[in-house]
Amino acid sequence: MKNSLRALSASLALAASPAFALPPDTVHDVEVFIGGATAHSRLLPNMLTTRWCDISVASPLDIYHDDRTAFGGTADGRNYQAYSCKLKAAAPIPASLQGKTMLLHYRLLTGSFLGVNPLARATAVDRMAINATSCPGARSATTPNYKCKNPVSAVLDMGMSDQEPQLFIGRNLPAGETALTAKELGNITIVPTIAIMFGATVSDALYQALQTAQGKVVGDFTDDQRPNLTTQQLTSLFTANGGPYNTDWTALGIANNGPIKICKRINGVGQQISNNLFFGGYPCSPSALLPAMKATDEIPGQYELSEGVLIPDMTACLTAANNAGQYAIGGLWLDQTPNGWHFTKIDGVGPILANAVNGSYPFWMQNTAQYRNKTVNSVPAPSGLKKTFIESLMLPEFERPGNLTTNGIMALPENGFTPGVDGANVLKSSRQGSNCRQPVLFF
Fold first, then answer.
1. DSSP annotation of 51
2. Which of 50, 104, 182, 205 would you call most buried, defined as having the most Cβ atoms within 10 angstroms of its Cβ?
3. In the prediction, which pLDDT does 14 show?
4. Which H, E and C letters describe 105-141, residue by residue?
């Protein structure tokens, strides 16, 4: 990620002159609106700067972020991002797209759910308006090149999710939403893309208490000294089962330190669905444990839940608890920088890429991309250059091991990649198209 950001900074330095940029009012040859899971958006900077865009002084990459003063949030670009450039006249760009200009919108707000139900139902959602009125002022030579302040309603062309759309049911849906019917699932083509590692996170105060109890070197954050939690313990903490792990911290073999604090995401977010599935079997098992929810399961002063919309909300919950000297626990995917919290081992295995690749670290999910394959609510399926962009550029590029430069993201062997041959980040196992299945090693 750091290398891709350095490459991005270098390209922007070359393209400092706004006279050569594609201004916000440009009518592009191809415009695509995607949204959903955060992970795929983290891969874009590297692909844009090294693979897709013809970046030069005469043809820069333009990056748009939402203006937090207009859209809310604590940082620009937290909810909406967009990219425009002239595509290369060479591989991997398909021949019909070579030399064309493109505008790519990515909505992060609402998480994986956005890339499933609204996409299949062709329901319009907000994204940034990219024009001179919404994105005023001269082009900045630093990222973002433009900050935009006006929303516009549009229908997604493509969705990304941390799990297959069939799992977005029950408590895996935002409040008031309904699951897709079999007919609605038929509106979209679902494609496995990548796998993402998730992990159990604890505030450093809890981390060090566990280190003491387990005979580790306190304050040492190397994998060898990382404390361990079992899947049974984590399941007991994340589900409101009424047992001792919902009462106080002594069940972990440590002294109590205030209420059990669970930092979690809202329903419909891929990371939270991962926790629900891995630790409670929900919704795959007929005997699944229901994931704890603040509205129904919180016991103030004993078992407290914080429900955040975005990843920064989750990390802020853990950091705030630690700053107050409190114990807190949650779950995140691996591409996060600890700040007052760290990942634990699960069942004695550390959350390290090589461990997931070889099958010893079990907590990973197969991600999917989807796009409409028919007209829905008078909105046609992607066609022409847009369809080529999705099927012949975005999908194969998101699957390619060499593009998966973000920590904890792996390529799937079912997409035609061989472990050790096509990269050290290619899984040796497969869930064979369903996150409800246990991984099977094929290499």
1. I
2. 104
3. 39
4. EEECCCHHHHHCHHHHHCCCEEEECCCCCCCCCCCCC
Beta carbons of 182 and 114 less than 8 angstroms apart: no
261-304 pLDDT tens trace: 999 999 999 999 999 999 999 999 999 999 999 999 999 999 99
Q: Please, is 50 exposed, middle or buried when counting C-beta atoms within 10 Å of its C-beta (0-12, 13-18, 19+)?
A: middle
Neighbours of 203 (CB within 10 A): 28
Average pLDDT for 20-26: 86
| Calpha distance 120→146 (Å, rounded) | 31
Rounded Cα distance, 214 and 218, in Å: 10
HSE (side-chain half, CA atoms, 13 Å) at 132: 6
Of residues 209, 301, 306, the one with CA closest to residue 258: 301
Separation of alpha carbons 106 and 373, rounded Å? 20
Task: Give the model confidence (pLDDT) of 77-121 as tens digits.
Answer: 999 999 999 999 999 999 999 999 999 999 998 889 999 999 999
5 — pLDDT class (breaks 50, 70, 90): very low
Cα 334 to Cα 33, 311, 371, 439, distances in angstroms: 26, 12, 27, 19
Of 394, 309, 364, 403, the residue nearest 38 (C-alpha):
309
C-alpha gyration radius of the chain = 22
Contact of 362 with 346, CB cutoff 8 Å: yes
pTM value is: 0.90
The answer to whether 195 touches 40, Cβ cutoff 8 Å, is no
State how far the Cα of 344 lies from the Cα of 78, in Å rounded to an integer.
27
β-bridge pairing 146-148 and 101-107: unpaired
pLDDT band (50, 70, 90) for residue 427: very high
Task: Give whole-number Cα distances, 194 to 15, 367, 381, in Å.
Answer: 32, 5, 24
Cα dihedral 185/186/187/192 (nearest 10): 70
End-to-end CA gap in the chain: 28
Alpha-carbon distances of 347 from 168, 299, 358, rounded to whole Å: 28, 28, 15
DSSP letters of 65-89?
A: EE-HHHH-SSSTTSSEEEEEEEBPS
